Amino acid sequence: MKNIRNFCIIAHIDHGKSTLADRLLEETQTIGSREMMDQVLDDMDLEREKGITIKSHAIQINYNHKGEDYILNLIDTPGHVDFSYEVSRALAACEGALLLVDATQGIQAQTISNLYLAIDNDLEIIPVINKIDMDGAMIPEVTDQIVDLIGCKPEEILLASGKTGIGIQDILNAIVERIPPPAGDENAPLQALIFDSVFNSFRGIIVYFRIMNGTLRKGDKIQFVSTGQNYIADEVGILKLNMVPKDSLSAGNVGYIITGIKNAKEVKVGDTITLAANPGEMIQGFEEVKPMVFAGIYPVNTDDFEELRECMEKLQLNDASLTFELETSKALGFGFRCGFLGLLHMEIIQERLEREFNQTVITTVPNVSFHAYSTKGDKIVVNNPYEMPDPTRLDRIEEPFIKAQIITLPEYIGNIMTLCLGKRGILINQSYLTPTRVELIFEMPLTEIVFDFYDKLKSSTRGYASFDYSPIGYREADIVKMDILLNGDKVDALSALIHRSRAQDFGRKLCEKLKELLPRQQFQIAIQAAIGAKVIARETISAMRKDVTAKCYGGDISRKRKLLEKQKEGKKRMRQIGNVEVPQEAFLAVLKID
Ligand code: GDP
Ligand code: MG
């Protein structure tokens, strides 16, 4: 055990974690040059395309330091706030962390939030200024920022480039010399922390764990503490680029276990694996992941509902943080109300449904989860506008609040104040991290963040602001349900729950946006926004005069077919509601309102 080091790499998004991991793997010949590619651990298609890490990854590195062999277990973590629970569990599986800071960017919001997570988990922190090969590298400034932030000595900060390989050897040495070996007792009852799982269609769910105490052997009867379910350890092993089976693994090690579980819901990140015969206690810090944002997902074609259900179930095997239940919409028919960790998560689910499962879907207006209290004192959890009780039966509504942390340059404080106060934010604190870097803390309603906050923040600071948030509970709010009517028909999938003070403005803008997005038809379309029976905004789309298809020319058949196919393609994401055709963009129009 004294020759094991478990570490992770933490950083703000894009500061170079995955690239640095590549270099560590290359330098130690963990991955041969033939298998090497950029961000090799991001093995999901979508990860490779978006250039972001969605799932945690673990890999074992063998390293010889001053004539002694060491095992270094590297856990790569996702950086985006939507996946921060995974980060926190991955950190709990380590004794140390490389904290990367991009030399051209300096400290950003997730640098700080991830650092706090690392400190909470008592990790040894090795600060690294990364990307020093770049022209804009500000090594002295970033050194000062890091010294201020973590209180280390300047000489303790390593300089590196994941691109060119500068400093990689220093990092490997520091991992061995500064990070403590794991503690733990091989002979105590088994306690292994689950920090991730993946679905494999041949083997079922593969669970990644770190053993804190005890020993796990192939063939053992194991138990998941939070669910009390028992399984047989069909295979246990360590993680190289591929899985390497072993007869047993003991305290301090990182590995995988295969038990033939097919249902992702049985495996929870943060849960503890123990032995059924001699159970150990739950490792502290386990939390069920709670969805933050809800939206409907519907098949474009109502006939495809059953197929979509199968695909959602399969997708959930791979992403246990996705929740869904059946819902019906008058406008859209059968579909699912889904819970997501955030908007990025929602976008990823929609894309995975399309790419991996070939499903064309419509997602409806996302909303947060409200708590409604009836006059009788019942609490109703409202994840969907239609679940909101009638105003006459309503005592009060509460909405989720978050603590937002924004780091920016002093010249943008004014813009950020305007933006956040306009979003019902309350300024809690303003402090200078360095003379050129200021941190603002706001308390804000989550619902204001969900829509377009991040884009607005970027545009009002020309990209010089980073943002992170964490939930801080529910507070009373004056929330109303706003409906949209097309030619007098209420389109339930376009209903939204919003703050009363915003309803008027929001309704007007939404009607304007819908006017832009709905295709003109042979007849006039009236678009109305209403709260209860009261219409608060209205727009009209005038009727189309001429039939455009008459303009289609004869002649070249294949060209004509191409044109038709193109039109079909364009139509794919349309739904007929009453007599009005509504494209997918319309359902997400709320996200595009400024
Ligand atoms: P992550 O989000 O922290 O995992 O960051 P990535 O490793 O995906 O890197 C983000 C971007 O920065 C990619 O375009 C990388 O090619 C680039 N990058 C990463 N490390 C370096 C570096 O040391 N130097 C330079 N010039 N670019 C880098
Ligand atoms: Mg990455």
UniProtKB/TrEMBL annotation:
What are the subcellular locations of this protein?
Answer: Cell membrane
Keywords assigned by UniProt?
A: Cell membrane, GTP-binding, Hydrolase, Membrane, Nucleotide-binding, Protein biosynthesis
Residue ranges of every copy of the Tr-type G domain listed in the record: 2-183
The way it spans or sits in the membrane comes to: Peripheral membrane protein
Entry EC no(s): 3.6.5.n1
Its GO biological process annotations read:
positive regulation of translation
- The residues that cross the membrane are none
A single Gene Ontology MF term assigned here is: translation elongation factor activity
- InterPro entries for the chain: EF-4 (IPR006297), EFG_III/V (IPR035647), EFG_V-like (IPR000640), EFTu-like_2 (IPR004161), LepA_C_sf (IPR038363), LepA_CTD (IPR013842), LepA_IV (IPR035654), P-loop_NTPase (IPR027417)
Presence of keyword Membrane:
yes
PROSITE patterns in alphabetical order? G_TR_2
- Which CDD domains did the record assign? EF4_II, EF4_III, LepA, lepA_C
Record-listed GTP binding positions: D14, H15, G16, K17, S18, T19, N130, K131, I132, D133
Q: Which reaction does it catalyse?
A: GTP + H2O = GDP + phosphate + H(+)
Top-level class of the enzyme under EC nomenclature: hydrolase
Keyword Nucleotide-binding (UniProt): yes
Family recorded in the similarity comment: Belongs to the TRAFAC class translation factor GTPase superfamily. Classic translation factor GTPase family. LepA subfamily. Belongs to the GTP-binding elongation factor family. LepA subfamily.
Function recorded in the entry: Required for accurate and efficient protein synthesis under certain stress conditions. May act as a fidelity factor of the translation reaction, by catalyzing a one-codon backward translocation of tRNAs on improperly translocated ribosomes. Back-translocation proceeds from a post-translocation (POST) complex to a pre-translocation (PRE) complex, thus giving elongation factor G a second chance to translocate the tRNAs correctly. Binds to ribosomes in a GTP-dependent manner.
HAMAP family xrefs: LepA
Q: What is this protein called?
A: Elongation factor 4
